[in-house]
Write a structure and sequence with these properties.
This protein is of the alpha/beta class. It is built from 17 helices and eleven strands. Bound molecules: NADPH dihydro-nicotinamide-adenine-dinucleotide phosphate and magnesium ion. Magnesium ion binds next to helix 7.
Length: 380
């Protein structure tokens, strides 16, 4: 395999951290040539020293100036335009979007338009504008490689298969920290409790999404676009061990699953080295240590996120963007102590009912729907 020159947007976060582990393990296959961070300037500086070939993008002008002071002669961009410039660096082969939320959307489109493959961890950009992202990839003749572990699993299960033989995609879900909770328990959940995920260690926003099951809801819509599959063929099953990362059922009744340890290094690596397979940063899986794999149906009555996502994904248009933005704003409010835990989905419902629906939105209309949804949540 030719060495892939990789730009990482969101390098200072949890996915960014795992990506650096992958890059350290595979120096022959992966070269880091771009790194971005926003508030964590100290971490960006450390990474810049470790990967001296990388062009940098800081959160703002001031942070960029300070980095230039510490790294004389180094290229340091900043802000939203900086991210777009980094995403279209002439020497880049692939751009990994690991920015939480939708701030990575324009850089993602820019990367595809300038002929780069895209590795996507930021599911929010596919929920908001999956049709646009996939159409841009098609026009540019580039790939969109899934990093989200479920979608990376499905991607692996689908290799070499005829799409017309797919019966359904089965996304696995740990169930989060409140899998066995009652409605009364949920009403009093604190941010500290919700941030404690049973199997994965992740950024704050996705940890809350995992507790409400909005993460799985977003992933249903993400799968709809990545694999061009109608929503009714996408199911969710609770699997507390997080060893089976997802499955595909075919028309003959065969189910193919992908298994590995609970470590994002594997899906990140596979997206960055596709279709190559290498012994990298991910520890091997010993099934005898795992012992058992359990599966159960999700409790849709207690966790409305799955049904809300199905409604949004089926309606299409601006509704997924509204669901996504309202959720993002509500998660922020919950983390800041301004909203109860059930308040998260109550606000998503309110925004979905309030923001005017556009069936075939332009990118500008999607951005407008996103903004309107946040306004509804802020208005309380
Ligand atoms: P983190 O919060 O740990 O990291 C987010 C990264 O994005 C940081 O580098 C942060 O910079 C940067 N960032 C945040 N907001 C902005 C912005 N507005 N503009 C530019 N940069 C920004 O998140 P995760 O790594 O957990 O998640 C990243 C994405 O990957 C999310 O979309 C998540 O859903 C998805 N994902 C994560 C998984 C995981 O295991 N963590 C698994 C599957 C998907 P800084 O910290 O310097 O401010
Ligand atoms: Mg996932």
């Amino acid at each position: 395999m030719m060495k892939r020159r990789v730009v990482v947007l969101g390098a200072t976060g949890s996915i960014g951290e795992s990506t650096m582990r992958v890059a350290r393990a595979l120096p022959e296959q992966i070269g880091i040539i771009g790194l971005s961070g926003r508030n964590n300037a100290q971490r960006l500086l450390e990474l810049a020293r470790e990967f001296p070939a990388a062009t940098l993008c800081a959160g703002d002008e001031k942070a960029a100036e300070s980095l230039r002071g510490k790294l004389p002669g180094r290229d340091v961009l900043h802000g939203g335009h900086g991210l777009e410039e980094l995403a279209s660096l002439p020497e880049a082969d692939i751009v990994l979007i690991a920015i939480v939320g939708t701030a990575g959307l324009r850089p993602a489109l820019k990367a595809l338009e300038s002929g780069k493959d895209l590795a996507v961890a930021s599911k929010e950009i596919l929920v908001m504008a999956g049709e646009e992202v996939m159409a841009t990839a098609k026009r540019s003749g580039r790939r969109v490689l899934p990093v989200d572990s479920e979608h990376n699993a499905i991607f692996q299960c689908l290799e070499g298969k005829d799409p017309s033989t797919i019966k359904r995609l089965i996304l696995t879900c740990s169930g989060g920290p409140f899998r066995n909770a009652s409605a009364a328990d949920l009403a009093s959940v604190t941010p500290e409790q919700a941030l404690r995920h049973p199997t994965w260690s992740m950024g704050r926003k996705i940890s809350i999404d995992s507790a409400t099951l909005f993460n799985k809801g977003l992933e249903m819509i993400e799968a709809r676009w990545l694999f061009d599959i109608p929503m009714e063929k996408i199911d969710v099953v609770i699997h507390p061990q997080s060893i089976v990362h997802s499955m595909v059922e075919f028309v003959d009744g065969s189910i193919i699953a992908q298994m590995s340890t609970t470590d994002m290094a594997l899906p990140i690596q596979y997206a960055l080295t596709y279709p190559g397979r290498f012994s990298g940063a991910c520890a091997p899986l010993d099934l005898t240590t795992v012992g058992r794999l359990d599966f159960e149906a999700p409790r849709a009555d207690l966790f409305p996120a799955l049904d809300l996502a199905r409604r949004a994904g089926t309606a299409g248009g601006t509704l997924p963007a509204v669901l996504n933005a309202a959720n993002e704003a509500a998660v922020d409010a919950f983390l800041a102590g301004r909203l109860s835990f059930p308040g998260i989905w109550e606000n998503v419902v309110r925004a979905m009912d309030a923001v005017p629906f556009v069936e075939h939105p332009t990118l500008e209309q999607l951005i407008e729907a996103d903004r309107a949804a946040r306004t509804v949540v802020a208005g309380g």
